[in-house]
């Protein structure tokens, strides 16, 4: 009986440790990608045209709705979206992301990334230029699967 209890305890401790090692990967914190836009998966990004599009529309309040969506129904697991100025500096602040997204800090601003690995065909968030005035370009990295991703997808430049 004591042997079974020990085996059960060892199994529980091992499962707990494995869960805590694997759990961050399910959330895929992309904070290190703030500058490079690379997800750090250890595979080269795709060089083909992505089956996704990144768009930004100005709202009446001067903020933008930034949307990442599929072009052909292809679902994606992960994404990372930032706003940058003409000198490639991160600018503004994202707000109110879709339920499948979360805001992360990428000083001096922030970015939007996926929240979990649920497959999706569209996500959006609002972006506020704050005190920035000038052209802005939104950039996205989109992950279809761990080995299949596109880096630095761009929208057309917009001016707040």
Summarize the structure.
The chain is α+β, with helices and mostly antiparallel strands and 160 residues long.
Task: Tell me the radius of gyration.
Answer: 19 Å
Proportion in β-strands: 35-45%
What string gives the helices and strands in order?
HEEEEEEEEE
Q: What is the count of helical runs?
A: 1
Walkthrough of the structure:
The chain is built from one helix and nine strands; from the N terminus they run αβββββββββ. With 160 residues, it is of the alpha+beta class. A five-stranded antiparallel β-sheet has the order 5-6-3-8-9, with no helix packed on it. Strands 1-2-7-4 form a four-stranded antiparallel β-sheet, with no helix packed on it.
Keywords summarizing the entry:
single chain, 160 residues, alpha+beta, Immunoglobulin-like, five-stranded antiparallel beta sheet, four-stranded antiparallel beta sheet, 1 helix, globular
């Amino acid at each position: 009986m004591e042997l079974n209890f020990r085996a059960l305890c060892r199994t529980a401790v091992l499962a707990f440790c494995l869960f805590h090692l694997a759990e961050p990967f399910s959330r895929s914190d992309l904070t290190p990608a703030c500058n490079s836009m690379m997800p750090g998966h250890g595979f080269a990004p795709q060089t083909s045209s992505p089956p996704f599009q990144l768009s930004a529309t100005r709202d009446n309040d001067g903020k933008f709705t930034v949307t990442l969506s599929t072009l052909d129904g292809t679902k994606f697991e992960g994404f990372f979206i930032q706003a940058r100025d003409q000198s490639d500096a991160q600018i503004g602040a994202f707000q109110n992301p879709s339920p499948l997204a979360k805001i992360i800090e990428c000083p001096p601003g922030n970015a939007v990334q996926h929240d979990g690995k649920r497959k999706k065909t569209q996500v959006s968030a609002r972006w506020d230029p704050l005190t920035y005035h000038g052209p802005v370009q939104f950039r996205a990295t989109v992950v279809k699967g761990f080995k299949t991703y596109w880096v630095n997808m761009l929208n057309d430049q917009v001016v707040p």
